[in-house]
Amino acid sequence: MAIQLDETHDAQRKSWIASANGHGVFPIQNLPLGIFSINGDTPRGGVAIGDEVFDLKAACEAKLFSGDAEKAARAASNNTLNDLMAMGGGPRAALRKQLSALLAEGTVESKKAQPLAAKLLHKASACTLHLPAKIGAFTDFFAGITHAENGGKRRGSNPPLSPNYKYVPVAYHSRASTVRPTGVEVRRPNGQRVVDGEKLPTFGPCLKMDFELEFGVWIGQGNAWGEPIPTGKAADHIFGYCMLNDWSARDIQRWESQPLGPFLSKNLGTTISPWIITPEALAPFQIAQPPRPEGDPKPLPYLWDDKDQREGQFDLELEVLIRTEAMRAKGLPPQRIAVSNTKHLYWTVAQMVAHHTCGGCSLEPGDIFGSGTISGPTPENYGSIAELTYDGTRDITLASGEIRRWVNDGDDIYLRAHGKRAGCVPIGFGDCCGRMVAGKPA
Ligand code: MN
Fold first, then answer.
1. How many angstroms is it from 388 CA to the middle of ligand 1?
2. Which end of the chain is more exposed for a tag (fewer CB within 10 A), N or C?
3. How many CA atoms lie within 13 A of 74 on its CB side?
4. How far is CA 204 from CA 171, 252, 256, 435, in A?
5. Cβ atoms 361, 226 nearer than 8 A
6. Span 143-171, mean pLDDT?
């Protein structure tokens, strides 16, 4: 799994695209892949670089790539990245190397690309970002142990964690058809729920709307039905990462979830950051899986891989911000309401892949995982509003003077992620913002 740092990570490497240098999110060391269109034309593969989108189809037509990188860029010229995802990691890494050389300042390759800038680059602000893949299946894990404990406490479970939690990377099959990229409004659902103070359910709008701060995983190369992926081989099947807001209707969830788990409370919509951050870009931010607390069981052998334990987790700073309609009207910026880190996950992504497939389930290119809500140990680390407000019993006071206990209509919820490490150029994941809007009348 260890990806060697190479010239594409070199902190001294600058781009001839001025906005990329010191960008903080999309410097030349990041090079995330996505699907964009401009002025309503055909969606195709692109790469975020500074304030621009680099057009992979135009670059193919200009014959800027060779070998595996050319195969990858050609596959990425379609309106989804599924074909590129199916190719495995080699072509993706080759593409990164050639892209980095083309976009770097002062390289031989840049002399071919720079004169074609007008054809190759589009202002990101003028582009529409689409889902990067046709998503076949969406699985949502539950690997944020503090979130799991906080939920158990709110439900009055003692102990708060289920007896299986430290053995099984718990998950459920969620809904692929309602995943949307940043910027798409999400409609408040109607459903059955028992309103506070009442005994019987009624049908109507969700009254306890929540967000969930999750790390998203894009599956690349699939596995055959009946052929599990071992923990130590999982990296070969991971195409990249995004941020994922698993919108959650808590009142509907509370009533419907016995005994099969959440259904309508989770299928109303999921917001993702549409740029895929590659494993190569995240290599500088790989860390060991933090040791389990004293007394916790060692994972069963099929979930254990020494190398995965040494380098299978990430150190990524995560944030949740809110911006209400009134805040927008007053010109107030988004306000941070939580900070967390991927290192608080109890399971690694490789363990999730291994568990998902250990019974023979096949994964396919373009499948997506959510990690589960990533809350950290202290209240400012809580990655859902149910945790931040103790199930709607405490106020969050905003700079506008407004109070929130749940997500209101008109609220924008932003998730952000950044990798930072001494000696490395920091990178980010880009926007993951969804606005909750009023639902249809019940
Ligand atoms: Mn979730």
1. 16
2. C
3. 10
4. 28, 10, 14, 20
5. no
6. 95
CA angle 65, 67, 72 (to 5 degrees): 70
Q: How far apart are CA 210 and CA 269, in angstroms?
A: 12
Q: What is the pLDDT of residues 216-270, one digit of tens each?
A: 999 999 999 999 999 999 999 999 999 999 999 999 999 999 999 999 999 999 9
Whole-number pLDDT of residue 1: 45
- Is 356 catalytic? The answer is no
Both structure tokens of 94: 């080759």
Nearest to 145 by CA among 365, 419, 342, 435: 342
The backbone torsions φ and ψ at residue 38, rounded to the nearest 5 degrees and listed phi first, read -140, 135
Please give the Cα distance from 213 to 208 (Å, whole number): 16
* Residues across the chain: 442
The DSSP secondary-structure symbol of 90 reads H
Phi/psi class of residue 182: alpha, beta or left (left: φ > 0; alpha: ψ in -120 to 50)? beta
Query: How many helices and strands in the chain, by DSSP H and E?
Result: 14, 26
Indicate which residue of 9, 147, 344, 356 is catalytic: 147
Residues pairing with 215 in the sheet: 243
> Inter-axis angle of helices 67-75 and 89-103, to 10 degrees?
100
Strands 138-141 and 368-370: parallel
Cα separations in angstroms, 92 against 81, 178, 241:
11, 27, 14
**Cα(18) to centroid of ligand 1, in Å?**
38
Dist. CA 143 → ligand 1 center (Å): 9
* pLDDT confidence of residue 2: 64
